[in-house]
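Methods: example folding runs. The two proteins below were folded one after another, and each record is reproduced exactly as written to the output file, sequence line first and structure-token line second.
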Amino acid sequence: MAAIETKNITLPKEVAQQVVTKARDTSTIATLSPSTPVLFKDMTHMLFSKEPEAEFVGEGAQKSASEAAFTPVPGEIHKAQVTVRLSDEVKWADEDSQLGIIDAIVDASSAAVGRALDYGIYHAINPSTGTAATGMTALTAGANSVTATTDASADLDSLVAAVNESYDIDGIALSKTWANELRKIRVKSTGARLYPEIPLNLQVGNLDGIAAATSGTVSGSLAKTATNVLAILGQFGLIKWGIVRDLGLDVIETGDPDGLGDLKRLNQIAYRTEVVYSWAVLDPKGFAVLKKASA
């Protein structure tokens, strides 16, 4: 079989920036935990496992050593890709139509890339198959676990209690299911919503003063096996992530790039978007996960 021929397109700066922005709109992690620049190499993050404490020293008294300890946390590098096939008639479109087609592909592909970040870090799930991803460890597997009750407000208190003795809580990621439940809660005396600022979409809001974002990625809606996750609360600054490769778009005109048949034979053309992520969760115990009670 002939080798796959590709034609690489470098996205203009404004389009590449659009991809990053839209990826942020589809990921609660990207909303609650800002990305940091990352190089394509092995990276180890350091976590204080024991922080030093100050000592009061009397006049003329000797000073003691303050003990400190670090725990190394290796970063993980993972590539996410989206390949979209279309009729090759798109090549015949005029310039305006071509831009519209590429914009649509960028929009859909970047949304998928954003979802992949949450699926990988929260659940260690490959979103295209809904099954476990190789070489990943789910944040939810090591986080503090809280079982949901019929009292959503009490569940929120339980989440906070599971984390705030050791870490500063700076965010909560909500499943759409739990966000809907919380919005139903009203003050009995006035009928006003108890949590009026809770977000129902990917725009950042707040829940009881905590920065909040809502997405179907939190519950892992694409997972073949239900995760039962309703919410994830904690210090989202413990999630270190970044994009280590510039975003680009490959236009593939011949060959079989995805196992679905020869493009020329099927009169098709393929557009492929790829991004390489690096991430590390410094301490999963800095998070608490609310899960449905087992049936």
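Second run, written to the same file directly after the first:
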Amino acid sequence: MATTLILERGGVPSVPAIRRIGVADVREALAAGWRDFKANPTQLVFLAVIYPVIGLIAAQAMAGRSVMPLFWPMLSGFALIGPVAALGIYELSRRRERGLPVSWSNAFDVRHSPAILSILGLGLMLLGLFLLWLLAARLIHGMTLGALPPALSVAEFVQQLFRTPEGWRLIVLGNLVGGVFALAVLALTVVSFPLLLDRAAEGRAVDAGTAIRTSLRAVRANPGPMLLWGLIVAGLLALGSLPLFVGLAVVLPVLGHATWHLYRRVVAD
């Protein structure tokens, strides 16, 4: 269980204190996230957002060869800005935890948060990382499949990807670089967004810099559980994407609720 507190500046709690957690805490956060989702299901809201975005990206990929190589990087890269999309889910879990009335419409109460400017600042940071990832993906494509004749169709592109040495180099290198971006986002945001939202609602607002430092400290204090959490997120997102992305309508809100409960276990009041 999460018991050990880690403070800075000689034990003076000038910044949020961090608890050490274990695998059991990660498992319990997931279970609590599932309970929150069952109590306030939001899959229809997520379906209404997911499918127009995926459809737009797919249409662009089908229409232009220049966009086709970025189809998967664009889809997978949305996990980098997932913490922003989960803000409303954090608010639902926060309200439920405090015994307040909860409905799906409360997810939009985030726009009235006193921390909205700090939240927007972190959101812009994630957008910048997303754009850097797309740039890196384009460079990787140029270094690998870029040496081959351009694919004229999706089928030809898939064939190049899985039946050529260049394609396999793209897969390996792309996943390695993508993993670095994913770890960076995990370290920067695993507790920062929930912390901003929670402390502002309680009248104890912290700034974006404090939120980021707290998130980095949380990862540094709990490298094993946080790595496990990152692997769980990646695995569930991959599973949710398999049946034509429909599973993401459940996976995304459950992960959002679970992230809130992980934050509550890692960061002391």
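Comment on the second run: DSSP finds twelve helices and two strands in the chain.
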